[in-house]
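Incident log entry.

Two folding requests arrived from the same account within the same minute. Monitoring flagged them as a possible duplicate submission, but the sequences differ. Recording both here for audit purposes.

Request one:
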Amino acid sequence: MSSLSSSISRFIRELLAPPGDVCLTCGSRTKLVREWPGICRRCAGAIPWIFRPRCAYCGRAIGCPDCLRPDARLRSFVMNRSAVRYNEMMREWLAQYKYRGHERYAALIVKMLSHAFVRMQHEISSLQRQPSLSRTDQLWRPDLVTYVPVSSARLAERGFNQAQVFAEGLGRLHGLTVADLLVRSRHTEKQSFKTRLERIQSMRSAFEFSARGFHICENSSRVIPPSDAVPGTMRILIVDDIYTTGGTLNACATVIRQGVRRETGMDPEIYSLTWARS
């Protein structure tokens, strides 16, 4: 009887246990880690972080043939940094969120992106710090954060733009201004099935600058270059989910640079931050 009572009590405890006791990614019922929303310590330990990029330009963890190409020097963004390597585990996490509607992954991915953003801040601050400045000077911050837009067809299919969710989440965590600087002018097929050259070609003329979105943000009096910025410059961060060849981000950066020059006369410094680097 006591055994039956114990079994019933355990069943009731499991039934009433909060959802957080079940790992979002592996499904095991275990203690979750505080740092990463919804996952257990084993899954947290398996995250393939990029702590020391091999490529200083695109942030890849291993050798990068793309950035050795002559056309890499003509890219419109300064650098990219990514939180993780895009392995099979990360591919499944993103698929669960993007294609299977598991919205709880959003908080986890935003937190991971935030972790990479802080590392990026320290790295850029270290590179740009002048000898006369102390280590206590303010960290590098973008004046604006934007994101890679999706087409209306893709938005209707998924119901959300994951890059927008990530950018807005990052903005909330760090008090950053998020602006709609781009619109998708042309629908493109999924990039994962294309070659490098096909990706680059398909992104040409795929985006347009949103002057309205820029001026709404500019008129809010929040877009004020920081005191440590070079006069006449604006620092913009583009957020996306995956960096593969850099073609999408470069197309976005090119359009933004042209648009900001046209509207303000300034030549902006553009950076990108992605959750994963393939």
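Request two (distinct sequence, not a duplicate):
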Amino acid sequence: MHTPSGVFSPPLPPVAAAPSAPLAPAVRAVGIPSPAGFLPGLESAAPADEDSLWLQDALLGPHSADIVRYLGLARDCGGGPVLDLGCGAGRLAVPFARQGFRVEAVDRDADSLERLRAWGRRIGPQVSERLATTRADLAGLRLRGGYRLVLLAGAMISAVPPGARPGLLREIAAHLEPGGALALDFTVHRPRGLVEDPSRTWAFQVPRFDGVEEWTVARQEFDPDGMREHITYHSVRTGRLSSERVVTATRKWIVDPERLTAELHGAGLRVERRRGHRVDERTESVLLVCRAGG
């Protein structure tokens, strides 16, 4: 689902200054490489600062493999308009606009939406004029138009509280045009695996192009009883003159596939296509394509 730039496990570089929160002791140990190149994302966390956007782009960046898949689906649906929910800084919305689709991009983070608009303006009016942005929380979303394709990409469904999911899905279903589709992806965890192994660790380098070297250890912790997961990213950034340690975190809901299917059906949506990719023996990445008529 996500395309990391590389997964390594070297010792982290020494730190000369630490203006941010200190690294946890576990971060000083060698990290465990990510299985099958899979990294958890920052779906439910707004960027903490400008530098944190490098980490976010590494996890859910503009070169993620799902863009091609979603573009093909948009063409199958007959074009736009496309609704990109939880759009972030436009990793899907801007490429869609470049391909000629009209896109409404929705996110709760104002800074991310401004990055999206600035990206579109840099490319030119042929792209920026196809982009409309709306600042809103998905838990209370109210739509106005009709859409040929609605995207909940990058596991955004896991950022929506379970109690708010049925209402969101009903709202989406009510605004799908004839022949339109909802596409969403999420991670399926084997329940027994969560109990047996409630924490996982990855280490990787964040690609940056500003002269800063950044290494990150991601610690993923599961709460099977509460159906929650918490991911903490401990990063060391080393520049020419100084280094710093930074901690970024995100909290998400663990998606129960059977419950989600029931919620889709209750919203009047049927699962037309299911595509799964096995991450490891405990985890699967799933893409669902849903149509009206559940």
